[in-house]
C-alpha cells in the first residue's frame, strides 16, 4: 500500500509518503515540509484563527498531493503543537471540516514510544526476540555500540521525549514540555542567543533533568531522532567530516566529545559557521543553537559517550507500529 503521514509539529508540518509492504518493509517515496511555527500563533493558551487557517491550508495542499500520487491510506497526527493548546478540540474539528482529515492527537508518552519504533526502523528493525538489530548506519570508524540498550531522544519544536530501552523494549518513557522552538521563544531575545541566555537555558534544562537519574542506566549510547537531532548530525557532517569518507544516509554517529565541540563552536559562531547553517537549514537558524544547547546537556545527563542520529522517527514509527499492525 502507499500511505502518507501528516505530522503536525510546533515548528513544522510535514508529510512523508511511503510504499509499505507487510510485515516490515517501509520504503520512503516523498517528503514535504512547511515551517509554520504554530507555537508563535498561540496566545492566551489558544491557537489563533490565523494559525488554524494556516494549518488547514497546508494540510489541504498535502491531501491533494497525496491523492495525485496515489496514496491509499492517509493519517494525520499531532503532538505538542496541539497538546499544549486550550482549543485542541476546536482545531481538530476545524481541520476535519475544512480538509477531511481526522487528527490523531497522541500523548507525550505515546510520542516517545513511536520515536523508539522509528529508531528500530532506521537501524534495521528488531529480531523475533524484540532485540534491536544493526542496520544501515553511517558512522565511519565509530561503532554504533550495544544496540540492545540505550536512551532515545526526540526533540521537536515544543516537546522532548526520552525513552530508556532494553532489548528493543521501552522500560521508562517521559515527555518534557520544551523543544527547540519553545526554548528559543523563552530564552532568546534576538536571532542567536547571547552567552547569558545560553546560561539560563542550560540551567533550565538541568533543572528538568534532575529527576531523571534513570537516564544513566541504559548504556553509553544516545539514539537521537527528530528534526533538531538530524540537523545537529548534518552540521557535524558539514563542519567536521571534510573528507566526505562517511556517507550520510540512514544514520550518522559521532562521539559526545564531538557534540560538545560543535556546541562550543556555536556558542560564539563565526561568519563561516553561520553561513554553513544558513546553507543547510535556513528555516532553523533561530532554533538550532537552543536545541543544540539542550541536547548537549541531556547527553550529559544520560552519561552518553556516543550520539547516533537516526533518520527515521515518529512518522516511520507510526507506520511500523500502527499501520503495519493493522494488516
Verbal overview:
The protein folds into two domains: 2-105, Nucleotidyltransferase, domain 5 (2-Layer Sandwich), CATH 3.30.420.40; 109-315, Exopolyphosphatase. Domain 2 (Nucleotidyltransferase, domain 5, 2-Layer Sandwich), CATH 3.30.420. It is an alpha/beta fold and 327 residues long. The protein has helices at residues 49-68, 80-83, 88-99, 108-122, 180-187, 195-209, 227-240, 256-267, 271-280, 285-301, 314-326; strands at residues 2-8, 12-21, 25-35, 42-43, 46-47, 73-78, 103-105, 149-155, 160-166, 169-176, 221-225, 251-255, 306-310. The strands form three sheets. Strands 10-9-8-11-13-12 form a six-stranded mixed β-sheet, with helices on both faces. It has a five-stranded mixed β-sheet with strand order 3-2-1-6-7. The protein starts with a strand and ends with a helix. Mean pLDDT is 88; it is low at 127-146. Helix 5 (180-187) packs across helix 10 (285-301) and helix 6 crosses helix 10.
For the record, the CATH class of the largest domain is: Alpha Beta
Q: How many helix segments?
A: 11
SSE order: EEEEEHEHHEHEEEHHEHEHHHEH
Q: What is the SS-derived class?
A: alpha/beta
Quaternary structure annotation: single chain
Average pLDDT level: 88
The CATH H-level superfamily of the largest domain is Exopolyphosphatase. Domain 2
Biggest sheet details: 6 strands, mixed
CATH fold category name of the largest domain: Nucleotidyltransferase, domain 5
Number of strands: 13
Uncertain segments of ≥5 residues (pLDDT<50)?
127-146
Strand line-up across the major sheet: 10-9-8-11-13-12
Helix coverage percent: 40-55%
Tell me the span between the first and last alpha carbons: 10 Å
| Global geometry | globular
Amino acid at each position: 500500500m502507499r500511505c502518507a503521514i501528516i505530522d503536525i509539529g510546533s515548528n513544522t508540518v510535514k508529510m512523508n509518503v511511503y510504499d509499505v509492504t507487510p510485515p516490515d518493509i517501509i520504503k520512503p517515496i516523498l517528503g514535504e515540509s512547511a515551517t509554520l511555527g504554530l507555537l508563535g500563533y498561540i496566545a492566551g493558551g489558544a491557537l489563533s484563527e490565523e494559525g488554524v487557517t494556516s494549518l488547514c491550508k497546508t494540510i489541504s495542499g498535502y491531501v491533494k498531493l497525496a491523492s495525485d500520487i496515489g496514496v491509499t491510506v492517509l493519517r494525520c497526527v499531532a503532538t505538542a503543537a496541539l497538546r499544549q493548546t486550550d482549543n485542541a478540540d476546536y482545531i481538530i474539528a476545524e481541520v476535519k471540516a475544512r480538509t477531511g482529515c481526522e487528527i490523531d492527537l497522541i500523548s507525550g508518552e505515546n510520542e516517545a514510544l513511536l520515536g523508539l519504533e522509528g529508531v528500530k526502523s532506521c537501524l534495521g528493525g528488531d529480531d523475533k526476540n524484540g532485540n534491536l538489530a544493526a542496520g544501515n548506519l553511517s558512522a565511519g570508524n565509530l561503532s554504533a555500540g550495544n544496540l540492545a540498550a540505550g536512551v532515545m531522544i526526540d526533540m521537536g519544536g515544543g516537546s522532548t521525549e526520552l525513552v530508556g530501552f532494553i532489548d528493543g523494549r521501552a522500560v521508562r518513557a517521559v515527555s518534557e514540555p520544551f523543544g527547540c522552538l519553545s526554548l528559543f521563544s523563552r530564552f532568546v531575545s534576538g536571532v542567536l542567543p547571547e552567552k547569558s541566555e545560553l546560561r539560563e537555558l542550560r540551567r533550565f534544562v538541568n533543572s528538568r533533568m534532575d529527576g531523571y537519574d534513570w537516564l544513566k542506566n541504559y548504556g553509553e549510547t544516545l539514539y537521537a531522532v527528530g528534526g533538531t537531532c538530524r540537523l545537529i548530525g548534518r552540521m557535524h557532517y558539514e563542519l567536521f567530516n571534510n573528507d566526505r569518507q562517511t556517507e550520510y544516509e540512514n544514520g550518522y554517529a559521532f562521539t559526545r566529545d564531538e557534540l560538545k565541540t560543535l556546541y562550543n563552536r556555536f556558542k560564539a559562531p563565526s561568519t563561516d559557521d553561520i553561513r554553513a547553517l544558513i546553507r543547510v537549514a535556513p528555516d532553523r537558524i533561530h532554533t538550532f543553537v537552543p536545541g543544540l544547547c539542550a541536547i548537549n546537556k541531556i547527553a550529559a545527563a544520560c552519561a552518553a559517550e556516543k550520539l547516533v542520529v537516526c533518520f527515521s522517527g515518529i512518522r516511520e514509527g507510526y507506520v511500523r507500529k500502527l499501520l503495519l499492525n493493522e494488516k
